[in-house]
Write a structure and sequence with these properties.
It is a single chain. The chain has 90 residues and is an alpha+beta fold. It contains two helices and six strands. It has a three-stranded antiparallel beta sheet with strand order 1-2-3, covered by helices on one side. It has a three-stranded antiparallel beta sheet with strand order 4-5-6.
């Protein structure tokens, strides 16, 4: 699977992502904000500190990370397998 190589925070809990195969788009994560471990995003400086970790996950500090495969599926609109309808949802 390809991995993210760049990430930038956007307003409204959105991320712009670019992957190693050139795929890029904005992913809306607002449905996660304020829930569980994602409550830390309530502080704008935390959400804005997003980065791509050495192992390819999109992370905030050491406590919160998102699966690069799920993000890739959202960016590209691809399904997990031929039996799955629609893109993966985080």
């Amino acid at each position: 699977m390809t991995r993210p190589i760049e990430v930038e925070p956007r307003n409204g809990f959105k991320l712009w992502l670019r992957f190693s195969d050139g795929a890029e788009d904005v992913v809306d994560l607002s449905h996660l904000a304020g829930r569980g471990v994602f409550r830390c995003w309530d502080a704008a400086d935390i959400f804005d500190a997003v980065r791509v970790a050495k192992h390819g996950s999109v992370v905030w500090g050491d406590d919160v990370e998102l699966c690069p495969d799920a993000l890739y599926l959202q960016v590209t609109g691809k399904a997990v397998d031929p039996l799955t309808v629609g893109p993966a949802r985080l």
